[in-house]
Amino acid sequence: MQKLFYLLFITAVCFSSCSSRKGTISNGQVRRNNNTIKKDNRDAISSYQSYTSLSYIERFKAIAIQEMNQNGIPASITLAQGLFESGSGNSELAKVANNHFGIKCTRDWTGKSYYKDDDSANECFRVYDNPDDSYRDHSAFLKRKNYAKLFELDKNDYEGWARGLKQAGYATNPKYPDMLINIIVRYHLDQYDRPEGEIAKIKREDRVLSQINDSIGKPNTDTLTQTRPDDKIYTVKQGDTLYNISKRFGITVDELKALNSIADDHIAIGQKLVVVK
Question: What are phi and psi of 114, to 5 degrees?
Answer without folding.
Answer: -135, 135
